[in-house]
Design brief:
Layout: E1 2-6, H1 8-11, H2 14-19, E2 26-30, E3 46-49, H3 73-95, E4 99-104
Parallel strand pairs: 1-4, 2-3, 2-4
Length: about 110
């Protein structure tokens, strides 16, 4: 399979998703719940959300290291579990030969 990294605009474009054969694949939507579009704005597909705070200060990958524990052990544990689920979802899709889209609001 293939992994695509993009922004919200392409993630909502049926034409772009179809061209890259992603509509029959998977999507990980890395956006905050407050900024989520109505479900109708994204084409129906196998997808999951990874909650982000949408600011440059959030150490998304930092939750996976020991330094994060100094900030909030509970939050670090929760985020590690969420990140593990995302990586497993992506890995399973790629291993099955599916196209997988990973996107946030502005592109990663």
């Amino acid at each position: 399979g293939k992994l695509f990294v993009s922004d919200r605009m392409r993630a909502a474009s049926k034409e772009w998703l179809s061209h890259h054969k992603i509509l029959s694949g998977r999507a990980v939507r890395c956006i905050s719940s407050a900024s989520r579009d109505p479900p109708d704005n994204f084409p129906a597909m196998n997808s999951m959300f990874y909650e982000v705070e949408d600011n440059l200060e959030e150490p998304i990958l930092g939750y996976a290291c020991r330094r994060a524990e100094a900030h909030s052990m509970e939050k670090a544990k929760r985020r590690r579990a969420e990140l593990k689920a995302v990586l497993s979802f992506v890995h399973d899709g790629v291993e099955r030969g599916e196209s997988v889209l990973l996107h946030c609001s502005m592109g990663m």
